[in-house]
Amino acid sequence: MSAVPHKTASPRVGFVSLGCPKALVDSERILTQLKVEGYDIVPSYDDADVVVVNTCGFIDAAVDESLEAIGEAMAENGKVIVTGCLGKREEVIRQAHPGVLSISGPQDYTSVMRAVHAAVPQVHDPFVDLVPRRAADDIGIKLTPKHYAYLKISEGCNHRCSFCIIPSMRGDLVSRPVDEVLREAERLVRGGVRELLVISQDTSAYGVDLRYIERDWRGGSYQTRMQALCEGLAELGVWTRLHYVYPYPHVDRIIPLMAEGKLLPYLDIPFQHASPRILKLMKRPGAVERTLERIRGWRAICPELTIRSTFIVGFPGETDAEFEELLDFLDEARLDRVGAFAYSPVEGAAANALPDPVDEDVKQARLARFMERQARISAERLEAKVGSVQRCLVDAIDGELAIARSQADAPEIDGLVQIQDGAAHGLRAGDFADVRIMGSDEHDLYGEVAA
Ligand code: SF4
């Protein structure tokens, strides 16, 4: 009788992932490595031998949420490894939760794996140990649905916006060479991804640290630079959406790619303010004059361009007149999607030292006026789409409805398109459909499959 190797139970890891899409990509990398090394990922504290918490530390509310998540994992399981942005502030974590096993900062996959190995050693498994150490499906673990994926093109940031502590947590800009990014995108598309969401801290600055080094991919030569990256991604024939683009002059060069249908006509540009003096106090990159003129120029080349942005109201020193300037900008720019925050100090940020903080009630009143003004504009821009046919990507089926997104909608942050007869047409998650738009509200569109 031949001996059958005995398969030992795999060690089990629980995982809590907090924070922005960049943190999500870090989580995906760690989870992929855990799977490759034979660890099981389990959904409950009870089943886990150890719990990894990937934290966010961007604003005070995120710090609180992260500390709470660590506390819950400590109470429910007791063996906790902390990583991510808040890991850069070890003393804050140690003070609240002295018993955590290990603390590391963002993108420090090696430290996390070392801590996991120490807490729950890998089990020798004769089945797994002979298998080459790569994830079976070649694209690793994804925390997003199968049909879209975040593509992180760089880490860190060379700017020093006065309200932001990301550079002190994630360091200066480190771009990934273009061929590496394009090969990852290629693998994702082979694995079923239909929409790539390009993320970084500053997508327009991509490659500057590598002096725009040229690399070969699919027999062609590409610079490590935003425009060349977009041209390469266009070869893959899926939706490509750009996030965190700063309005440097060279952004003008990618608008024609959008007009030609090679890139989604969508720009996520965090303008943050419209007053030149406040932008200067914020130390914003690409704080150019003539922003309105440039937006008009982009729309002349690509009329279907969607612009999403974020703003901060009540920044230290913001006067009534400067706030009015911001509202006037909204009226003129007629952006499609806008998020806004009342300024709140972040521990360690340079802006905390600025004079003339705005009273909390004034900040809140300005935020309410800002949101009201933009809500009307967003609703009008959506209403203008009623009667048109929009190409949509289906995210899910809910009874009779297909829940989809148009080219103008990024997942999680923008609106949805409800396709009333989606199920009847046999649509499934990941399918594209042309949808005749029949109605709209402030956020979403409603329609039916176009004949
Ligand atoms: S561009 Fe400014 S806000 Fe964005 S990560 Fe860099 S420093 Fe922070």
Q: Could you give a quick summary of the protein structure above?
A:
This protein has 451 residues and is α/β, with parallel strands linked by helices. It has helices at residues 21-36, 60-76, 90-96, 109-119, 166-170, 178-190, 226-234, 255-259, 276-282, 291-301, 320-333, 360-383; strands at residues 12-17, 40-42, 50-55, 80-84, 102-103, 148-152, 154-155, 174-175, 195-199, 214-217, 220-223, 239-242, 266-268, 306-313, 337-342, 389-398, 401-406, 417-419, 432-440, 445-449.
Please explain how this structure is put together.
The longest helix is centred in the last third of the chain and has 24 residues. This protein has 451 residues and is an alpha/beta fold. The N terminus is likely disordered. The protein has a 5-stranded parallel sheet, with helices on both faces. The site of iron/sulfur cluster has 10 residues, from helix 5.
